[in-house]
């Protein structure tokens, strides 16, 4: 790659792709005259980054290959959100709540009382503290994406990527010359560039078509899950305590409950997820339309209203669904694509894509512009690492080695 201006296209306008573009634009080593664009199929933050809960936990990856991603990203978020004027970021305590009865009254008589939200006033069993708010936080990811784009005036091109244009390099493969995409009009065009970063969530498995399976295999499963958002039942401020709930066999749920600064409450871990296979994802499954499962909306509403009497007369703000991108080993693909100079992938971040976004953004920026990431060791996430597909399971959220939240 020459030392002159770089022309970089990031495919995917979610929180991961936008973070890569943002940190590229902010990098002091980006050559003068360079351009950084996002190619987005629908709109920025239109998929999981517009519908995810936005929970992050600094220590929940400790002892695993993703520990650095948790630590670096968590430590970056507070400063980034201050600089970008992101209003939805805040640290908050986290409680573990089991189904049952009598738990609230018992917790009120203990040191847990300081963390009990007023809206947790229904039937629950045992309550335990999972985090006091020192190393757990939340953000509304759509706001974060929009603030990153506007802050750095990142150019967003709307269109569906369909491949790459390449030029041969004598005796050493090919180099990137552009990204082919289909406009909303149906016309195909080429976005000229010398570098492409595939960061399109579950649809990133398209790299097998774009570059050939002999260059990269990117097994991916999209786990399509429903989430709901409740309006505040009154004008009072909603207490900022997140809940991870035990599996409730009555409703088939394993709720994660996130109050937001705007007074709403976000719920996921609703159960009944659909498993979308790679072949479907490569054809663009659920890219433009991803609807909620109404049966799971009813189940989640029932489970939550059992826990919260305050919300038994509440009103849903919206119901929605999105997919999280899951490689078989629960680790993201982060690095260069072999045989193609200027080709990179940053995808497959499972349920932690929002939480890890700043770390992934700066690590990929360093790799692209400096040849190596100094912020994060990317070796565990080598895009060429994959072997035979393993079975489904164990790819949900972890607190250390313990499974918490939805695992199916």
Structure notes:
- The protein contains nine helices and 23 strands.
- It has helices at 15-26, 48-51, 67-84, 103-108, 141-152, 207-211, 278-282, 294-307, 353-370, and strands at residues 7-11, 35-40, 55-57, 90-91, 94-97, 127-131, 136-138, 155-158, 160-168, 174-182, 188-192, 195-198, 221-230, 242-245, 256-259, 265-268, 274-276, 316-326, 333-336, 340-341, 343-347, 398-399, 402-403.
- The strands form five sheets. Strands 5, 6, 13, 14, 15, 16, 17 and 18 form an eight-stranded mixed β-sheet that branches.
- Strand 10 (174-182) and strand 11 form a beta hairpin.
- The termini are far apart.
SSE map:
Layout lengths: L6 E5 L3 H12 L8 E6 L7 H4 L3 E3 L9 H18 L5 E2 L2 E4 L5 H6 L18 E5 L4 E3 L2 H12 L2 E4 L1 E9 L5 E9 L5 E5 L2 E4 L8 H5 L9 E10 L11 E4 L10 E4 L5 E4 L5 E3 L1 H5 L11 H14 L8 E11 L6 E4 L3 E2 L1 E5 L5 H18 L27 E2 L2 E2 L5
Parallel strand pairs: 1-2, 1-12, 2-8, 5-14, 10-20, 12-21
Antiparallel strand pairs: 3-7, 4-7, 5-6, 9-10, 10-11, 13-16, 13-17, 13-18, 14-15, 15-16, 19-21, 22-23
Helix pairs in contact: 1-5, 1-9, 3-9
